[in-house]
Amino acid sequence: MSRQIAILPGDYIGPEIMGAGLKILAAAAKITGFDYETTTYPFGGSAIDATGEPLPASTLAGAQAADAILLAAIGGPKWDNAPQRPEQGLLAIRKALHLFANIRPTQVNPALVERSPLKTEIARDTDFVIVRELTSGIYFGEPRFLHDDEALDTMRYQRSEIERIIKAGFELAMQRRKHVTIVDKANVLATSKLWRKIANEIAPQYPAVTMDFEYVDAAAMKIVTHPTSFDVIVTENLFGDILSDEAATVTGSLGTIPSESRGVSGPSLYEPIHGSAPDIAGKGIADPLSMIHSITLMLRNSFQETATADLIEQAATATLHAGIMTPDLGGTATTDSMTDAIITEIQRK
Ligand SMILES: NC(=O)C1=CN([C@@H]2O[C@H](COP(=O)(O)OP(=O)(O)OC[C@H]3O[C@@H](n4cnc5c(N)ncnc54)[C@H](O)[C@@H]3O)[C@@H](O)[C@H]2O)C=CC1
Ligand SMILES: CC(C)CC(=O)C(=O)O
Ligand SMILES: [Mg+2]
What is the ipTM of this complex? Predict the structure, then answer.
């Protein structure tokens, strides 16, 4: 049975890294026999150009009907003054598909340990996951106002939204080292106080899992000083957005980290955690690893397609070990030359 994958290439470097990722997937699938079909849809700024909307109804319908969704990245200065911004499309698809749990793994590839800003022994052992609440909080706040001299954003959380994301964090911890850190600002924010209350209610349902709390400012420091103290971090939308970009830097580059956004049912959406990188778009130097890892995360979690995921990951690691990497990691490879090198490794297996 052919797996249906909805492809949303997006803007700026989006189509560059999506193209690289799909070439690699095709090469690996040819060897393992993984059977899939892709359908490409306009999304973000390119969709605004084509249809006036960042999330056209046909794109949403196609994504909803797929077995999994692959997104590269959207947005950029071209649409800064557009009546609708590409980012509205991103928030809208997350909300429409109820993708409330955004899973962002932080691990240093064995071939990149020397390139991490962390001490080698800490880099080697760094392995944690940020579970970010994705469909509520301040990015979806109501009311909001913007007047000449005053602006207001609101952060609001309901019990049901907090319960399901904290449970998702505990479930993930059960498959890992069984430790959950709730990151909040409960010394100041009412929403954080509610998060703590609910976390304390849920924790006894998972007696094998230990839990602690960390204020977000201290957690930001610990991510770079003591990252090995974390296993699963569960946090709200804004904090998770910021902390995950910070966490990516300890792995060597923001251009390496994937994510999965999960709902209650229906397809998951897989995407790099970074944006459309307008500063390097068109130069052919975007790091394809974040997209490649988004694809392997999809293969593992949506399709249980371990053989294809392993083949791609082993080939990517071998390529990095050979010193072939893009400038964000200190190398001189282009997106294309790195992609070709990974495909050569895949075909060698
Ligand atoms: N999920 C999405 O589609 C997201 C979209 N955005 C949007 O992306 C646009 C640009 O945002 P920025 O703040 O510049 O953040 P960004 O994440 O696009 O870029 C930040 C820095 O990281 C570098 N970088 C990112 N990905 C890279 C890769 N694969 N290889 C090498 N270097 C890479 C960029 O060159 C830049 O220097 C904005 O419109 C923003 O709203 C931002 C985050 C997520
Ligand atoms: C529009 C933003 C919320 C996108 C972003 O920065 C992210 O999801 O990481
Ligand atoms: Mg972000």
Answer: 0.99
CB distance 111 to ligand 1 below 6 Å: no
DSSP character string of 221-285: HHHHH-GGG-SEEEE-HHHHHHHHHHHHHHTT-GGG-EEEEE-SSS-EEEEESS---TTTTTTT-
Query: Is residue 248 lining ligand 2, measured as CB closer than 6 Å?
Result: no
Q: Determine if residue 262 is labeled as part of a ligand binding site.
A: no
| Residues shown for the chain | 349
Q: Where are the alpha helices (DSSP H) in 275-305?
A: 289-301
Using one digit for the tens of pLDDT, what is the confidence trace for 255-290? 999 999 999 999 999 999 999 999 999 999 999 999
Specify the CATH class of 1-104+256-349 in words: alpha beta
Q: What is the pLDDT of residues 163-202, one digit of tens each?
A: 999 999 999 999 999 999 999 999 999 999 999 999 999 9
- Residues known to be catalytic: 139, 185, 217, 241, 245
Q: Domain extents for the chain?
A: 1-104+256-349, 127-250
> Residue 284 Cα, ligand 1 centroid: separation in angstroms?
15
Same fold, 1-104+256-349 and 127-250: yes
Mean pLDDT, rounded, of the chain: 97
Task: Give the global pTM.
Answer: 0.98
Specify the residue with its C-alpha closest to ligand 1, atom 43.
275
75: Cβ below 6 Å to ligand 1?
yes
**Is 132 known as a binding-site position?**
yes
- Structurally, at CATH architecture level, domain 127-250 sits in 3-Layer(aba) Sandwich (3.40)
